[in-house]
Structures are given as structure tokens and as C-alpha cells.
Write a structure and sequence with these properties.
Blueprint (H helix, E strand, L loop, with lengths): L7 E7 L6 H12 L5 E7 L6 H7 L4 E6 L13 E2 L1 H6 L4 E4 L5 E4 L2 H9 L9 E5 L3 H12 L3 E6 L7 E3 L5 H6 L2 E4 L25 E4 L8 H8 L3 E3 L2 H15 L2
Parallel strand pairs: 1-2, 1-3, 4-6, 7-8, 7-10, 8-9, 10-11, 11-12
Antiparallel strand pairs: 3-5, 5-6
Helix pairs in contact: 4-5, 4-8
């Protein structure tokens, strides 16, 4: 392949990611910036153990990676260095590869979520529920903590004091927690009728419902919130912001 040596390769690491936002976003970005030597691909792997082989196969050109579910935590064991913030969050979604081939992990979900949430916050938004406990939920929790918002995780199998089950979600809890963030994949295309099992009838116009899903642009979770007059937001801006932050990290 002509000019292969000058090629700069970037990749998304995940499982079953043919739908990936990142590939479309960066392919368009490279085209707009006339960066013909840049290419973005998917490393669609069934186990994180396959990652070293993928890196080895592309070691001359690979400059950076994004990481998505389910590997935001598992990838820690394959990194040479981890940024302080990513370490605190407990999840990595961006990797920079040095000239010597060293891998450093960052978390840009924190930046993306904060940037897109902050303009929507009102004084009464003091407590939040985070639906789900995966890698992205950790970034959400980190941001809420930074903003002084108390939160609880809601999980199908809760562990410890910070987590509660869906069955425990009473009317009082929903009324008190006026930010609800969906970090589960429930409602993602093609299963667009799915939604987290919460008492939607207790949602009011004081609520803010945020869904990390961006496809469809209005999930059933958001629709049900909107019907009750809540402010709703999907995950597209967060994804765009975290992608831009990743791009800046790769180009440092």
C-alpha cells in the first residue's frame, strides 16, 4: 500500500461495535481536515486478551485508541501508564501510544459528560440516580461528585451502600433525586422499546433525565420523562466532546 509508512491509524476497542459512533465521527473529521494519511478502524474483539495481538499487527502506524464497553475497566492491565483522573474514575476510554510504543490511558468521558450536563443544571438538582454500574457510570459519578451532587447507583444486583436495586425505587426516592442518568444499554437501537424499570409516574418538570445512548436520539426513557415535563438530553454531545478531547490527547 502506497504511503503505508506515513499512515496514522486510530482504533476503537470494543465488542460487537459495528454500529460505532467513533469510526463515523473520526472518518468524517479526517476527511474535513484533509488528513488523508489518517485512518480510523474498529478493533472488534471478543476478549481483551486479543488486544496485544491487534497492537502488534499495527505497531508501526497505530497512534491512539478509544475504548468502549465492555473493556473500559479490563484494559487497565494492558497499559504502561494511567492518567491520575482515569485512575480515580476507575475507567479508561482513550489511549495514547508514544513513539516508543508505550500505552497511556485517559478518561475523556468525564470531560464530555461534564461539558454537556453543566448548562442544564438548576439549583434544585442536588441528588441523582445513576442507572447502571459499568465503566461509563463511573465517569458520571466522578462528575457529579465534582459538581457537589449526591448520587446513588441503581443496579440489578446491588453491592455496598452506594448501590440500590430497582425494586427499592419508591416515589419518595424519585421525587428527591431530580437528576436521573441512564448508563445502561437499555433502549439502544434496534431494541428501542426497552427502558430502565423505574417509576416514571413520579417524574416531574423539575427532573432532568440524561441518557448516555444517542441512537435513537430519543429513547423510551427520555420520551417517558418528556411526557412528564422533564428536561431531557441524549448522549450525542457527550460523545462528540469526549472524542474531541481524545483527539487533543493524541496530538499532544
Amino acid at each position: 500500500m502506497e504511503g503505508k509508512e506515513n499512515k496514522k491509524l486510530f482504533a476503537l476497542v470494543g465488542r460487537n461495535i459495528s454500529y460505532s459512533f467513533s469510526k463515523g465521527y473520526f472518518t468524517k473529521k479526517f476527511k474535513d481536515l484533509k488528513l488523508e494519511e489518517n485512518e480510523y478502524v474498529n478493533f472488534d474483539i471478543q476478549s481483551i486478551k486479543e488486544l496485544p495481538q491487534k497492537i502488534k499487527e499495527n505497531k508501526n502506524n497505530l497512534k491512539g485508541m478509544n475504548v468502549t464497553i465492555p473493556y473500559k475497566l479490563e484494559v487497565f492491565n494492558y497499559l504502561d501508564k494511567i492518567d491520575k483522573k482515569a485512575l480515580k474514575v476507575g475507567a479508561v476510554n482513550t489511549i495514547r501510544i508514544s513513539k516508543k510504543g508505550k500505552l497511556k490511558g485517559f478518561n475523556t468521558d468525564v470531560y464530555g459528560f461534564k461539558k454537556s450536563l453543566k448548562p442544564l443544571l438548576k439549583k434544585h438538582h442536588e441528588k441523582a440516580l445513576i442507572l447502571g454500574t459499568g465503566g461509563a457510570s463511573k465517569a458520571v459519578a466522578y462528575v457529579l461528585e465534582e459538581l457537589g451532587v449526591k448520587y446513588k447507583f441503581v443496579s440489578r444486583s446491588p453491592e455496598g451502600k452506594k448501590e440500590m436495586s430497582y425494586n427499592e425505587l419508591s416515589r419518595e426516592i424519585i421525587e428527591a433525586c431530580q437528576i436521573i442518568v441512564n448508563c445502561t444499554p437499555l433502549g439502544t437501537y434496534p431494541n428501542i422499546d426497552d427502558c430502565p424499570n423505574i417509576p416514571y409516574e413520579s417524574i416531574t418538570s423539575k427532573h432532568l433525565l440524561y441518557d448516555l445512548i444517542y441512537n435513537p436520539s430519543e429513547t423510551t426513557f427520555l420520551k417517558k420523562g418528556k411526557e412528564k415535563g422533564a428536561v431531557v438530553k441524549n448522549g450525542l454531545e457527550m460523545l462528540e466532546q469526549q472524542a474531541e478531547k481524545a483527539w487533543r490527547i493524541w496530538n499532544k
